[in-house]
Design goal:
Blueprint (H helix, E strand, L loop, with lengths): L1 E7 L4 E9 L5 E10 L1 H4 L7 H23 L8 E7 L3 H18 L2 E6 H7 L1 H4 L6 E6 L4 E8 L2 E7 L5 H11 L6 H9 L24 H12 L6 H34 L4 E5 L6 H14 L2 E3 L3 H4 L4 H12 L39
Parallel strand pairs: 1-4, 4-5, 6-9, 9-10
Antiparallel strand pairs: 1-2, 2-3, 6-7, 7-8
This protein binds 5'-O-[(R)-(carboxyoxy)(hydroxy)phosphoryl]adenosine and zinc ion (ZN).
5'-O-[(R)-(carboxyoxy)(hydroxy)phosphoryl]adenosine binds next to helix 6 and helix 7.
Length: about 375
């Protein structure tokens, strides 16, 4: 049994949690505190890295103290402290990682620097008996990737976005349509009253082999359609939101379907698709993925929303999984680990270099 404090500060949430991993692999989340900064960034229509870093500095001590108090444990009880060490907005990553290092040093605990993407990749195992291997669709504000997960520390990237991340596309579309930030929930809300068939947005990369994604063209198509309407009514906005959302969901499902085809033989009878990241909350997307999984005979697993969006529990859990797998660093070893703005979880498939293009804050 291991008890781990997890710290997450890579984007706009200051989060800490205490998680216990039992020897059989079961998970108890003893506390999961998240202090979200949405209100700090709302006036700017997007996340401002410097404001995020300052907010983390102001909140981190209180959030960690709350997580420890809610769990009813002391630092002496912990086996390790896990902190997100990247990828992300580096000013924020620095805050959480430094807090983790200071606590580890002060209390003589080992520090586990966690890749934020590994947190998302393993989070499903907190609530489900998801045995390896599985296909992970990681879909958040900074990432849109398909990853084959074979074990703790064993990842293979099958596809990624060549331009915008899905959450970024939602956020930018919301801004364009005059909706609130974060854009995903706002676009989803507007889309409820909209007609998804009104605008026929293009299916990106339809003729391109592989499992990469592209969302920049869709965003531009929405902009052009919106600009063609002189004075958009709320119904126009709803129709644009619904048409955008359904085109995005269809694209994500189509590319995920390709990855499933590539893995079906290897996976045999145990075929599992796991969806993680903030955009996994989107019901239209879940509907498209659930239809895909049903059609192909795959099991679809989506962690509860509080573990899909950024949180400290998934970071603590990744640390605990590393300890259980015997791959956690020794006490003192990780104190010199530097925060990383970029830190791919797995290299791209051999022989393929990804194009440039604008990437999300965590790409
Ligand atoms: O995983 P997350 O909390 O943070 C990152 O690691 O990026 O994801 C945040 C992203 C934001 O872009 C937000 O707009 C999007 O997830 N999001 C959604 C929904 N809820 C959050 N996108 C679409 N539909 C939603 N219901
Ligand atoms: Zn995330």
């Amino acid at each position: 049994m291991v008890l781990v404090l997890g710290i997450e500060t890579s984007c706009d949430d200051t989060a800490a949690a205490v998680v216990r991993r039992l020897d059989g692999g079961a998970c108890d989340v003893l506390s999961n505190e998240v202090w979200t900064e949405h209100a700090d960034h709302r006036p700017y229509g997007g996340i401002v890295p410097e404001i995020a870093a300052r907010s983390h500095v102001e909140r981190i001590d209180a959030v960690i103290a709350r997580a420890m108090a809610a769990a009813g444990v002391g630092f002496a009880d912990l086996d390790a402290i896990a902190a997100t060490a990247g990828p992300g907005l580096v000013g924020g990553v620095m805050v959480g990682l430094t807090a983790g290092k200071a606590l580890a040093l002060a209390h003589g605990k080992s520090l586990i620097p966690v890749n934020h993407l590994e947190g998302h990749a393993l989070s499903v195992r907190m609530t489900e008996r998801a045995a390896f291997p599985y296909l992970l669709l990681l879909i958040s504000g900074g990432h849109t990737q398909l990853i084959r997960v074979d074990g703790v520390g064993r990842y293979q990237r099958l596809g990624t976005t060549i331009d915008d991340a899905a959450g970024e596309a939602f956020d930018k579309t919301a801004k364009l349509l005059g909706l609130a930030q974060p854009g995903g929930p706002a676009v989803e809300q507007a889309a409820r009253k909209g007609r998804p068939y009104r605008f026929d947005f293009p299916a990106p990369l339809a003729r391109r082999a592989g499992c990469d994604f592209s969302l920049a063209g869709l965003k531009t198509a929405v902009r052009l359609a919106a600009e063609a309407i002189p004075a958009p009514t709320p119904q126009d906005v709803a129709d644009l939101a619904a048409s955008f959302q359904s085109a995005l969901a269809a694209h994500i499902a189509a590319r995920t379907g390709r990855a499933m085809t590539a893995l079906e033989e290897d996976f045999g009878a145990e075929r599992q698709l796991v969806v993680a990241g903030g955009v996994a909350a989107n019901e239209a997307l879940r509907g498209a993925l659930s239809a895909l999984a049903d059609e192909r005979g795959w099991r679809l697993l989506v962690p509860p929303a509080k573990y899909c969006a950024d949180n400290g529990a998934m970071i603590a859990w990744a640390g605990a999984e590393r300890i259980a797998a015997g791959s956690a660093p020794a006490i003192g070893a990780a104190l010199s680990f530097a925060p990383r703005a970029r830190w791919p979880l797995a290299p791209p498939p051999t022989g393929r270099a990804h194009g440039g293009g604008r990437k999300g804050p965590k790409a």
